[in-house]
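W.,

You were right to be curious about this one. When I first looked at the sequence I had no strong expectations either way, so I just let the prediction run and decided to look at it fresh. Below is the sequence, 259 residues in total, followed by the output.
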Amino acid sequence: MFDVFLYPVSAILWFWHKVFGAVSSPDSGVAWVLSIVFLVFTLRLLLVKPALSALRAGRRMQALAPRMRQLKEKYGKDRQRMAKEIQKLHAETGVSPLGGCLPALIQLPVFLSLYWVLRDFTPGATSNHVFDRAGVESFLNADLFGAKLGNWLSQPAAELAAFGTDHVHMIAVGVPLMLIASLATFFSLRSGLARQTATAPETAGITKLMMYLAPVGMLVSGAFFPVPIGVLLYFLATNVWTLGQQHFLTKVVDRAAIE
């Protein structure tokens, strides 16, 4: 289903691996780590415009929040009338309730494809979309400070030993990656909470809950599920990018609103 995305995503990873492999050894962990990070950055850069559109749509919906509350107070008991008045309000202001959702839906298959391309570097695989068998083996043999990029923290010690690593190295590398990625997620959600509390208090509670659940979920999945170090690098890169992007795009939208 995602093949239309998987091949382009793997092609971008292949391109960056060729670039960084030419500078250092193609089989080195440095070349693969930088390839993963720049794959994430490339895709996120291509998706900045949809993200900006989603943020602007969200701001327009936030601006309508007081009028929406008035309609709910006035027609709360008549749901049919309330729905009609809300629809009329959206038509008058040119605001679509789906405006903030559609850009996110566009981004979702790209992010899932990025995740699955990294997960498909599996032992015994003869290919991974654009990568041939040699490329798969190169990824699986690459390491970051002794932790193999294709292995995960909860893997049995015997399996880790077969790949030339162990739990000590996997934990030493994997835990900091998970912690930094979790902190980036926490601060990304927290940065939007204050504004959301002021403009859309009915949904602020959900954001506050996710602010704690999402980082914990990332730590649990990384520690107890088969999430390779390469995928943890993806989580780290994408969450750090999200934190920086949110800060930058918020300033852009705020500046445009003042002007």
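Here's what jumped out at me. Residues 3-258 form one domain. And, maybe more interesting for your project: The chain has a mean pLDDT of 84.

Coffee later to discuss?

I.
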